[in-house]
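Suppose a colleague, Dr. K., hands you the sequence of a protein chain of 171 amino acids and asks what its three-dimensional shape might be. Before reaching for any lab equipment, you can write down a predicted structure in token form. Begin with the sequence itself:
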Amino acid sequence: MFKLATLFWAFTLLAGCTTPSAYHPDQDGTGFSEERVSGKVYRVTFRGDDKTSQKMVEDMLLLRMAELTQLAEMDHFTVVIDETVCKTEVRSSPTSTCKYEHSMNEALPFMMLTETLLSDEGLVSKAYEARAMFIMGHGVVVSDTPGSYVTEDVIRKFSCLKAPDGCSGNQ
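The predicted structure, expressed as tokens, is then:
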């Protein structure tokens, strides 16, 4: 009986140590959001925090597009336009913080100062945000069309991102 109780508490403590997945609906400025633009066209955004890599943010965006396509009972989608933005916060003095964004897209680079705030000195944080507009389709997929994906393939490859430890070792 003692061993069983010890195992129960050990599992309970370990369960409390896992970090939640970054893949979730937008809350507190992180996660995914979407907007139906028209018919089969959607705009999707995924925002990571300072612990989420650029690749992970982009993969989670792709997974969300595949899920929306599957919910609409379509079997493929094509990304029309996409962009990843790096949001950086630099605390430059004891009284100011500079926040700026820059595009990770080499074809459309930009940098934008967003605000200056009072804060502590010396801290830097960086977070990525990926955005895309895509069209859902049904039927024949032209595999050599740039930005076209088969829904099932994307879900099979990236559904592990929903787990607290992501796809570590699964890709």
